[in-house]
Design goal:
201 residues; alpha+beta; two-stranded antiparallel sheet
C-alpha cells in the first residue's frame, strides 16, 4: 500500500523509535516531497494506540504543527507520512548561529511554538518531548512542531499521564520525579526551548 503511493529516497534520521526518510509521492497530480517516519518493534496494542493518536493528529490543522498526511500499518512496522520542512530542525539552526538571535525573532518564534502546542493541547494530546530538535523550519523560517513519537492522547482534559519519556534535560521536574503530569510539562519544555533560543545554549 505504502509503496503504491510513495517512493522512499535517502535516510535523513534514525533514533530510538525508528527511521526517517525523505520520500516523494507517486501521484502525478501531487508530486510533493514528504518525510516518512518508520516505527518498528511495536506490538499490536501499541500499533492500535499509535493509529488512534495519528487519527487525532490528522485533525490538527495549524500553521505551526507539522501536518500528518498519511499512515500505513505493515506486518512489522508503522509508517507515518508528514509534510517536509526544508529548513531542517531548530536545534541545528541554533548551533549554526555565531551570534545570539535578535530578540524580536526569539519572541516571534516563541509565539509560534505556544500557538502550535495550544492547538495540540485543545485536542487533549501531550507532546512530551518538546525540544529544538523536534521543532522544524520551513524554507521561509516558519516554525512547525513535529515528532510526536512519544506523545500521548488523554481521554479527558484533566487526566494525568504517568509514563516517563522524553529527553531528560528538557523534562519537567514532576516527570523526572515519576509523578503524574499534564499539559504543564509541555509548557516546561517550551520554557527550555525559549531559554535555548535566547542564549544559544
Amino acid at each position: 500500500m505504502f509503496k503504491a503511493k510513495y517512493e522512499k529516497k535517502e535516510l535523513i534520521g534514525q533514533g530510538a523509535f525508528g527511521k526517517a526518510y525523505k520520500a516523494v509521492s507517486k501521484d502525478r497530480k501531487n508530486r510533493g516531497v514528504f518525510i516518512v517516519k518508520e516505527v518498528s518493534g511495536l506490538n499490536k496494542r501499541e500499533i492500535e494506540s499509535a493509529q488512534n493518536e495519528i487519527k487525532i493528529l490528522k485533525e490538527v490543522h495549524h500553521d505551526n504543527v507539522v501536518k500528518i498526511v498519511d499512515d500505513f500499518t505493515e506486518p512489522d512496522k508503522f509508517l507515518i507520512v508528514m509534510e517536509y520542512c526544508a529548513g531542517g530542525d531548530l536545534g541545528t539552526y541554533i548551533k549554526q548561529q555565531k551570534q545570539p538571535l535578535p530578540e524580536d525573532q526569539v519572541m516571534n518564534w516563541f509565539k509560534q511554538i505556544v500557538s502550535g502546542i495550544s492547538s495540540v493541547h485543545e485536542r487533549k494530546i501531550l507532546h512530551r518531548d518538546l525540544k529544538p530538535d523536534n521543532i522544524f523550519l520551513t524554507s521561509w523560517l516558519q516554525l512547525k512542531i513535529g515528532d510526536f513519537g512519544v506523545s500521548k492522547s488523554l481521554s479527558r482534559t484533566f487526566d494525568m499521564a504517568s509514563t516517563m519519556c522524553g529527553t531528560p534535560v528538557y523534562m519537567a521536574p514532576e516527570v523526572l520525579r515519576g509523578e503524574p503530569y499534564d499539559q504543564k510539562a509541555d509548557m516546561w519544555g517550551i520554557g527550555c526551548v525559549l531559554y535555548e533560543l535566547a542564549t544559544g545554549k
